[in-house]
Amino acid sequence: MRLRKFREREGAFLVEGADLVAAGLVAGRRPQAVFVLDGSAEAAAAAADPAMADLPLLAVNERVATRISTLETPAHVMAMFPLPQAPELARLRSARLLAVYADRIADPGNLGTLMRAAAGFGATALITSPDSVDAFSPKVVRGSMGALFALPVYTERALGDVVDELGGPLVYGLAAHGGTDLHSAALRRPAVLCVGAERAGLSEQASRLVGEMLTIPLASPAASAVESLNAGVAGAIALYEFARRGDPQQGKGRP
Known about the structure:
single chain, alpha/beta, Alpha/beta knot, four-stranded mixed sheet
C-alpha cells in the first residue's frame, strides 16, 4: 500500500501502530484486517482488547510484517481500513462552516500536521488540491496522529468546484507577506481557509479565488531570519485564531 494506485485499486489504506489503529476504532471505523506481530506484547494486548473481539485479527511473523509495513522497523500492530466515503460537500453547508483547503502541499508531514490542527480546532473538513500529496499515504496517516479519522477528508478537488459546492463561502488565503494581519482580520464564516506550500505559496488558480489574504506577523528580530512558517504551523495558527474568536452570533469567544 505504498503506492496510491494500489490504495485506489483496493479501496483501502494502511494504518501502522497500535495507537493509530485504536484511533480508527474509536472513530467507528471498521478495518478490513488487523495484522499483529506474533509473540509481541502489543499483539497480545490487541488480542485481549474487547474492541478487537469481532475483527479479523491476523498474526504474522516478522518477515511478513516487514513486507506489509512501510517502516524500517514494522509496527507490531497494523490494519487495513477502507478508504472513507465522505458526504457530498454540499451537505456541509452551514453558517459555521470552516473548511481547510491544502493547495499544492507536497510534504506529508505538513499535511499531517494540518490535519491535526483542523481536527483539533474544530474545522468542518479538510480538502486537498489535485497536486497535493495523497492524504492517505502512510507518511500523512502517521503525521495526522489519528486526526485523519476525526473529520471528513476530500482529495483532488479544484478550489473553484469546492467553493461552488459549498455555496460560495468566503475564501481566505495565507500569504507570508502583504496580507491582512491575521489578528486584526474579521475572519467571518462560512469560510474556506487556503494553505499553500511553504516556499511556493498558493497557486495562481487558488489566489484568483481568494477574497482576502492573511499574513501571520512574525516577531522582530526573528522576522529577519525566518522567511516564512511551514504550511502545517501556519495553518495551525490561523485555525487557532478562527477557534479563538468562537461564534460571534452566540457571543462566544473574543473579538
